[in-house]
Amino acid sequence: MRQSRFYAFVFVAPALLMLVAILGWPLLSAVLLSLQDVRSVGSEGSWVGLANYRKVLSNTAFWNASWLSIVWVVANAAVQTVLALAAALVLNQRFPGVRIARTWIILTWIVPTVVVVMIWRWLFSTSGGMINPLLIQIGIIDRPIGFFSSTWSAMATLVFINSWRWFPFIALMMLAGLTRIPSDLYEAARIDGAGTIKRFTRITWPLLAPTLGVLVIVGTLLSFNVFDIIWLLTSGGPAGGTRTLPILIYETAFKGYRLSEAATVAVLASVLLMAFAFFATRSLAKQGDER
Amino acid sequence: MRRGVGWNIVLGGVVLFFVLIITLPFWWVMSGSFKLPQEIIARVPTMIPQSFTLQHYVKLLSSSDYPTYMINSLVVASVSTLITLALSVPAAYAFFRLRFPGREALYRMILLAYAFPSIVVLIPLFGMFAKLGLVDTRTALVVINVSFALPFAIWMLRSFFGSVPMEIEEAAVMDGAPPLVILRRVMIPLIAPGIASVGIFAFIMSWTEYVFASVLILSDAKRTVPVGFSGIIGQYQIDWGLLLAGASLATLPVILLFALIGRWFVSGLTEGAVK
Amino acid sequence: MRRSLTTLLTSAALLLPVSAWAAPVEITLWHMEQPPHRVERIQQLMDEFNAAHPDIVVSQEPQNWGEIYAKAPAALSAGAGPDMLFAIPDFTPILKDIGALTSVADFVTELDKKHDFLDSALESYTYDGGVWAVPLYNMSMNLWYRKSVFAEAGLEVPTTWADWKAAAEKLSSDQTYGIGLPANKQLYTDQTVYSVMANGGATEIYDENGKLRFDNPQTVAAYEFYADLQKLSPPDNTSWTWGEAESCFASKSCGMILQFSVISSYDTQAEGDANDLGVAAIPHAEGESQHNTIAYPNAVMMLSTDEAKRKASEKFVSFLLEPENYGRFLNMEPGLFMPVTADGAEAESFWNDATVQKYRSQIETVIANSGNGKLFGFTSGRVFPAIAAISAQNILAETLQAIVVGGKTAAEAVSDGQARMNEVSE
Fold this sequence. Notes:
The complex is a heterotrimer.
Chain A: H1 2-34, H2 51-57, H3 60-91, H4 98-104, H5 107-110, H6 113-124, H7 131-138, H8 151-179, H9 183-191, H10 196-224, H11 228-234, H12 245-255, H13 259-286
Helix pairs in contact in A: 1-13, 2-13, 3-8, 3-10, 3-12, 6-11, 8-10, 8-11, 10-13, 12-13
Chain B: H1 5-32, H2 37-40, H3 55-62, H4 66-97, H5 103-111, H6 119-131, H7 138-162, H8 166-174, H9 179-190, H10 192-208, H11 211-216, H12 225-233, H13 240-270
Helix pairs in contact in B: 1-13, 3-13, 4-7, 4-10, 4-12, 7-10, 8-9, 10-13, 12-13
Chain C: H1 2-20, E1 25-31, H2 36-52, E2 56-62, H3 65-77, E3 84-87, H4 92-97, H5 105-115, H6 119-123, E4 126-127, E5 130-131, E6 134-140, E7 142-146, H7 147-153, H8 161-171, E8 177-180, H9 187-198, H10 217-229, H11 242-250, E9 254-259, H12 263-269, E10 277-280, E11 293-302, H13 307-321, H14 323-330, H15 342-346, H16 348-351, H17 354-358, H18 360-369, E12 373-374, H19 387-392, H20 395-404, H21 410-425
Parallel strand pairs in C: 1-2, 1-3, 8-9, 11-12
Antiparallel strand pairs in C: 3-11, 4-5, 6-11, 7-9, 7-10
Helix pairs in contact in C: 9-20, 20-21
């Protein structure tokens, strides 16, 4: 027991220390910032208690951004889960070229975000972009459209681009989960006469569920925080239609020069996320992650 | 496994779908990078290039620090990955196997590290790094990358540990081996594919990190690819050819890397965690 | 004893000249001219300067406009900032507010005597009892078109808004867009919108007492006109920055665009026929008498607190403004950067550049047009530094988007815009 504790300490301490120093302390200082009225970086502020909170909570921009963040997270989760599950199921099959496919599917994820942004910015534009001409040729539209020109299409396009980028990673994680399902289970089921769909719902889905659970939780947290794709493509526009919470925070801090107010929004957003993470992981733990 | 014709068609269709959406954009970008400027911005774009020129690559390589950015990115990403693994593997094992007070609570708290917008830690961290003389250093980037990768790494590794059959572990414990030895000799080899996949995650997250690199790095010599790339493209004008060439070059090293070692990472991962 | 004293004294005497040789003063310049050919030209000039001044070593760190608003204040407050930083008029107040700037009035007066600065350039940096940066180069918006395209459509160069709209309609067809105007929440759109406002009698967004008067009939009319005109632009103009507009013009998809200069892209990405490229002053509303435009005098802020570094920085800036060097500095992007000094406007080093010679008539027109340059927040001899937050958040562009994307009427949008400006100014 004691030996266990000693080792536990040695194993866990370095990682924990790093997290506390690099993430914990700045978070604390952000909370402190939210209780002051600091404007631009480097200027001094005085203590104002909860004034910032009152201001932010009564500001429609904050509620709009929260709503958009939720839309963003849910849309991404939906699209990515479908794409990733489809890809993972496909990659779990045997067909010529599957090995190559497994290695290279991750291509869209290993490319730096900035590059992804530039690629799609060009492809969706009318300056030589390929998407409009392609759609016109197939006959879906007859005049070029602006993918980032209306609030909902901008959001949809961004969700598409972000999903395009992330789904292979999730697919590989799912694939790892799928391959851990012993094939004898499938054999036994086939012998019992279960068809493909039944095998999926009775074996694949239940055994994959815990892995899926972790992925959805972590995926949600990560996609909530996505900043660069949105910022570099639409800066939260048009007309604020893609201004999610991270965008609002960045704008308030670095364009509006209201650091404390930005910190307040961040703290509120964190509380939301932490609540989600807490409840989600608790229900996951109950599902037998324990030994 | 035999499949009916119906399923084969579905499979074929889905495979084609994925192949197209993944490779077409890259084809367009790479083929575009060899086109003359007039053809790139032409009103009716061409699927197959009608012209050929290397001028964009020449401009990119001769008048910018692209190779420097590549090296910086590689160094930062590799070191970040190694440190992440070194810290997360023992920690994940401890959370999984060893008993200590507060274990569960601490474990759930680790994931909370993702529960806040990372933008907000930018400023206090900048101040902290400034005091430590770490502004404009690659060390600062490594520290940030490791911190952001750790929670996910620990989570995934713990679940990989969890998939090791009890008997194997029990046997080692009963032999009286101390945790460190169990970890090294028994557990790590068993979940090696899982470690590999967590390693890829850490590497890529570090390779593509933009926001912190753009603010913490002040001088050109230390820039990483994402930041350097967006700078070269220019802001008042867009040299599309340069942009396409830069995008192609930014993708190249990771493609090369994957051509060499991607295969074992992925096949290890998919051949099952435990034999 | 004596011996050692002598030795001591001799060695001290020998060491004196050695200690007089100090390490060279190192200074850094941060600027946002990142395209590789601009960086190269600046490096050339720096190398020449360093060779001529062995006691100073100046180097550059190109930065990105997107990051610099966050990075510069953070770096300066952490003591890791540069000695010189290029700026535009609405960026300077931000640094002044955090106490990073001291007045360079004396230095500027000295330079003014030698080179004669453009009044509008100086005005943008002179307020609150000081001069906060040294003007370096100018940019102003113009209307660009192809003479052959106009001739084919039987069009004259438009001088009024009605003519302008008619010309754009005439040039619109299945294949082309009559005019390429942006509608993005970004600096370029701020600039084009203001260029139109400035030609509609809506130049002043503040009154003499510093109170916001953005919401007024002329502004509403200008927005109405712009929102209407931009309908003739490509549908993705809500994500346009300068690059997309230039591409549109270069590929002949757009008949006209508003831009500082298209010479570079026209020359390299389009046909580069100097005889066909037309540039004109931006049309004004009926009832206005002169053509105005938006003027962006770029300057350099001097940030060192160390005396030696300050002096060294001043030497470098003086070097840049010398007529024999100034032209080459401006031509790091031929046709885009205009001189802010009288002797610069005549410098051989400016006019001798190959591209400048090729497009000589266009550049002369641009220089002439920039005489009527205005900048919102910096007009009528008074400067309202609160403008920094307004331009940083692109409120002019945001107001346009409220009409174009959000479907509001111009009157509603402008009124909301004013409320927003008040909000960010407090």
